[in-house]
Amino acid sequence: MGKTLAEKILGSHTKKGDATAGEIVEATVDFLMVHEVLGSRIIPILEEMGVEKVWDPERILVVNDHWAPAKDSMSAEIHQRNRQFVAKHSIKHFCDVNCGICHQVLPEMGLVKPGDLVIGSDSHSTSYGAFNAFSTGLAATDSALIIATGKCWFRVPESLRINISGDLPDMVMSKDLILKIVTDLGPDGANYKSIEFHGPTMDSMSIESRMTVANMSVEAGAKSGLMTVNDAVRMWMATRAPGVKWKEVVPDDDAKYVEQIDIDLQKEPIDPIVAVPHSPSNGKPVSEVEGVELDQAFIGSCTNGRLEDLEIAARILKGKQVNPGLRMIITPASRETYLQALRLGYIETFIQAGAIVTNSTCGACVGGHLGVLGSGEVCISSTNRNFRGRMGHPESLVYLASPATVAASALKGVITDPRSVR
Amino acid sequence: MVKKLEQIKGRAWVFGNNVDTDQIIQGRYLTLLDYAEMAKHAFEIPRPEFASAVRKNDIIIAGRNFGGGSSREEAPQILVRTGVGCVVAESFARIFYRNGFNVGLPLMTVPEVTAVVRNGMKLTVDLSEGTLTVDETGEVLKGDALPQMMLDLLRAGGAVPRFRQQK
Description:
- The structure holds 2 protein chains of 2 kinds.
- By secondary structure, chain A is of the alpha/beta class.
- Chain A contains 14 helices and 18 strands.
- Chain A has helices at about 5-10, 35-50, 75-90, 100-110, 140-150, 175-185, 200-205, 205-215, 230-240, 300-305, 305-315, 335-345, 345-350, 405-410; strands at about 25-30, 30-35, 60-65, 95, 115-120, 135, 150-155, 160-165, 195-200, 225, 260-265, 275, 285, 295-300, 325-330, 355, 380, 395-400.
- In chain A, a hairpin with a 7-residue loop joins strand 12 and strand 13 (about 285).
- Chain B has helices at about 20-25, 35-40, 50-55, 75-80, 95-100, 115, 150-155, 160-165, and strands at about 10-15, 60, 85-90, 105-110, 120-125, 130-135, 140.
- Chains A and B meet through helix 2, helix 3 and helix 5 of A and helix 1, helix 5 and helix 8 of B.
């Protein structure tokens, strides 16, 4: 029987070199990413475990990103603990509060390559599936065990294959595609499973768009959101990790999938999608929610704070003014993204349009800082979760959408179809 | 510390489907370094009375996809800290499930449990048997059997005590 991407990549990291869906395997991890969870939870666990030495200081990235720079003295203490840990253990890769969001900076630093097994102390670690790596989010205890041993146990997931063909129409983004997929699957439709995204649409997609899809796979409960290598990945590896050897992993033709879904965007084009409160799987065509009044529009996060996202927002906002009844907040995903946007003039466009541009941080997406919602406030957001209370007050409402829909809505002050402001 | 997995006796707190991690513990409390302090905010959004009214060994009953969303281990940790004896759900989100065992929080999957159990009912859960009994009526619901590896993890009290045992 042939193997899926998940079986192949997990299998290649086991002693026996093989893995089959359903079995529990111990695998050697290539790389671990930890953020503030290191300081708040992992360090105390390592102390309790009696671990003095990390397994490999060159295979760990520490990022201070969730509340960057510190929003209060507690987050400042967590950041201090991370800095001390990095110094004490000579951790090679460290991004302090000036770098950006973990899932953006890890690939930017060339720390993921096709075929890798990458773990992050964050649920959106599925993002690296865009690079043909098996990556998933675990929490503090598992991260501590990996820091100690470099190993982790996995139940090898069953796989769900989605074949996508056709082009996304103008002003319809990969965010709309994944919101539709998550809505069709439901919040647990891919629970414990690995999703494989295939087809010409995925092959022609940019890194940014692919990362959005892989990132939000977890919103359907998926353990990973995997893709094969395309030209964008080849180009990325050549520039971000020159000289690093890697080998593409492809699933076997006779691999076993629990389900296969075909999406033909030519036959059935999709509209911009908005996920209404309080679940990312509550997606609706934008026409069904047009006119909902807004207090805030937010573009940022590991899901949609990349250059492509800022570019489309700048295109929509250029020479125009954000509706005075609303505040617009833009948080580039990383310092590098910020700099590129600055050079291309997007940042000036945003500020001229009346938007607030913040430093790179998870910030508003986690209700942390720089855009927290008050009681009764309504926000349209390019982020990944609209759970009750996610971005602030339990009585606030979050609508998830693409950066294009967020920017168009910011102009009108109400939820707006981006195709209507071209 | 060896954890008892039979005869977990407590009162039911019944929740619906898709109780996400922000409903268990909101993101804004994650900078609290003291779990006891954080536990005061358990289920603050859906059940504000929970943290002050929960008693030792009380049992959380939930529908599908309990614990979806964030990977935050604080979610099962604070349930341990509030004294919750066990969570019985129709299904669990993947990361929460793993985290529960890692921190020593007993979890059991029982189909249709929310169709039978009501708030405040007295229950007895036996993880090694995989059963939930409604004390008043004697009705027994059968849960999915736990793999031996998970039972061993729970008996040890979680992944950290087990690591220390094996070291």
